[in-house]
Amino acid sequence: MRADRQPGRLGEGSCRVRRTATLLGGVALLALLLTPATGTATSGLAQQQPGTSPALFARGRELYQQACASCHGPDPAGASVYATVPSLNDVGGAAAVDWTLRTGRMPWKDNKGPAIERGRPRFNEQDIRALTVYVGRTVGDAQLPQVDVARGNVERGRALYAQACAACHGMNGAGAALGGQNIAPSLQNVSPLDVAEATKVGPGVMPPGGGIPDYDFSSAESTQQVNDIAAYVESLKTRPYNRGGAPIGGKGPVPEGFVAWVIGLGALIVAARWIGGRS
Amino acid sequence: MMIERSLKYLDERLGTSSFARGAVRKVFPDHWSFLLGEIALFCLVVLVFTGVFMTFFYTPSAEEVVYDGPYQPLRGQEVSAAYDSVLRLSFEVRAGLLMRQVHHWAALVFVAAIVVHLCRIFFTGAFRRPREVNWLVGIALLALALGEGFTGYSLPDDLLSGIGLRIFYSVTLAIPLVGTWVTFLLFGGEFPAPDIISRLFVLHVMLLPALLIALVVVHIFILVLQKHTQYRARGNTERNVVGKRFWPEQTFKSVSLLLFTTAVLTLLGGLAQINPVWQYGQFRSFDVTSPAQPDWYIGFLDGALRLGPPWDLTLFGFTISEVFWPAILFPGIAFGILTLWPWIERRFTRDRAEHHLLDLPRDAPARTATGVAGLMVFFIMFLEGGNDILGVLLNVPVEVITRILQWSLLIAPVVSWLATFWVCRALKRSEIHPARTSAGVRLRRSPDGGYETTPLEPTSANPE
Amino acid sequence: MEVDDRQREHGPPGRGLTAAQRRAERAAAVAFTVAILSGIGLFVVYFAGGQTQLEGVLFFLAFGGLGVGLGLWAHRLLRAREAVEERHELTSGAAGREAFGDALAAEVGPVLARRSLLVKLLVGAGGALGLALLLPVLSLGPAPGRTLKETPWRRGSRLVDEFGRRITLDSVPEDGFLTVFPEGHEGSADAQALLIHVPEGLLRLPPDRLAAVPQGTHVAYSKICTHAGCPVGLYRATERSLLCPCHQSQFDVLDGAKPFFGPAARPLPQLPLGVDDEGVLVAQGDFYEPVGPAFWDQERR
Lengths: 279, 464, 301
Fold this sequence. Notes:
The complex is a heterotrimer. By secondary structure, chain A is mainly α.
């Protein structure tokens, strides 16, 4: 029997070249775009110790009654309205209020996520300060942590981070699931103040003190240690950190394997189909 | 002129010309699915080139040195000489990071290509007589590739791969009877055994590549000796091979595929970061990071361990660890079935004939269904291996994912077996091929404006 | 082997290239030129100091250009001829096998057939030598002995962190935790332990175990997961449970670190603690059970 070559196949190949090239270009573009947004970076606020202005305190109380009392109760130092909502008396004081408000985690959004997610702050800077002053003074914990990342030593910070933070947040700050509804969020886009406040507060299931040995909020040593850790967390944003190219989420071998299959082997199978015969 | 003289020189001493003439005219079938094994082979070529380069820079020693290179967060840290050398290669050697990343991407794609190639062999029945021996060689190559990959990514002695080594240590401990002895002999003592780095190096650079390359040569030799299989088509019989010659057609195509493979791997190696060991930090036995997974091809074992029920057994004062079932028994049985498949199938089909024409998957519904069910089992394990990342992605607690996949493991393979079997049978009866394009028609216009169509004969590239 | 050529060519024979082939030739030329330029670019990048992303892209263009060019050549510019080759018989046939069998038997057969004492001794010698050749394998590592059942913790070992700092009752805030080692063995793989400060009155341990918890609040467990050996470094403070990141085993700190989810089958062994005269936390002995994953003879003394 004679084996025919089909007429009309002459034009197919160049079609296939274009298709192959477009596909390869598309998947390469996709690879570069795979870096996910890790949440909005909050602007680095200068250290604000709450002022003693009575006007600020009053403004804070007014805002609290409007926006917070329906869940947290009319008195921040008293019981909350619902069993699932913690009383503000023992969540970490002013630092907790400042952190949750600045990172947009509070007021509560109708999100179905496993953790209270970062978002855009719903109050402006002045109002956040007012609420911080009000709640902080009412519960008796009005001090905000001081952090100066310029004073931090990134090498010591890395060592401390490995000891205290890496288990949950990942050595590269990518974050991880902690079982149940808990998540250790990504630290690849947070401010030094976030680090200092979260360390003091221990939000969610995070241990207060962040697992740093001998942590004492008011001691100079702990402050320096937090500066060091904040310096390391800052370094997670720098170029040498990702000098190999697109980090693909920074979550390790799982996304890498996905890319190897879909983009690597995928492109090569497309190439094989162009090169070989088809049926 | 020069080429003629060289060929004459060789032929007078080695008799190469007549042998080469036969080789040059050898016919290979032309289908794209026959190129999957070549993709794996070309990944191996890339691995060898980049790997040899890196051996000139790697120090296989666990001796502690103080890091003082350009990666600032690690300066002043005590790290192993191995880790230090990998960091030096990544930050201070020109093209060093490219070589490292290309090598690692090539390893991932290498095993992926082997798996896809294996699936093609399996689902087309290419392992039947006379190719059972080559099937065994292929399975051995898969096992060697897994071993090469695991030993390779453990060489940098970083935190993530060190955690993986610790798990491997625990798995060998769980071997009944001889587990503690095997582990202590393999590692050289209690974990973390410093000797393991140099031993992994010898395995990765000398022993396993020697076996791998030898078996690849055997694999190709048997293929050439027995000639390649081919799909059914007009003109293809069990007694012939229809396709293109080795020279020039297949040579050009293979070289082109080699170049494409290298192109894709170098693009990934340059643009997509992989295994950034400086971020993970050096391995210390009391440090840990999240999430923690192995490279993808070990992921099914990690998933099996996550799925595994917490059942340890103590009989007569001896313990069988809960790790035994998912990490020793399951892979043993799975690989056993895979290895012995040609003979298992023969038990049921009683088919002892020589086969050089390939089945389409629908032609052997039971085989295809079993293959799909098997892939389903592995797929569920791979999913579970990334369950914490999946959980964050889907906003679902990790425990829920685990429970769902535990139940899926019981139900999905059975359901997929039945569904695949039914689909294959239905397709076989209906004679429709989903990917087939029509061979075309010959159109003849008649003088009074009508036309008639006659279908063209199908070719070997477009079989019935 | 017989080979039969069946010629099917692109375009009319002997009349030069068709339009499509000329297009392909131009495209291949462009591809090869891209490859040449990328090659030159690689020289520039390398001698300018190297840059991983640029190197990757340029190599991609170089290899890819060559590959596209050769692929086009293979597809369009070769006279693609389909060829047919006959398969040869793979087997040597019964006659061939018989001849081989005869050859074997002629040379070796008679000696074996006699099954003499000599042959038996040969087999014995081979076996003994073969086993003896395996002996150096035993030099690869020490005997396990009691290594897996003991750690450096002793009665009176002071608790220190990885930097060598001694740990007191105040070192860990309430709901905090810390990785600790025996003094002098900082970083020891099998001694690593977690010191956890739980609020008073929450621990649910049997009385003898509770006695080894200073103030009923400072409890210590082995950090090595009893499933597959990963450090169980994730402490969920408000839930007072530990999570192992490798396979998601979860341990209840208030209940003797018993696993309540995941593949681990045994609780994390507890380390008995006390406080010395200087207020430093000390161990009262080694862990109650062998640490880490299970092995065959772990129940035996």
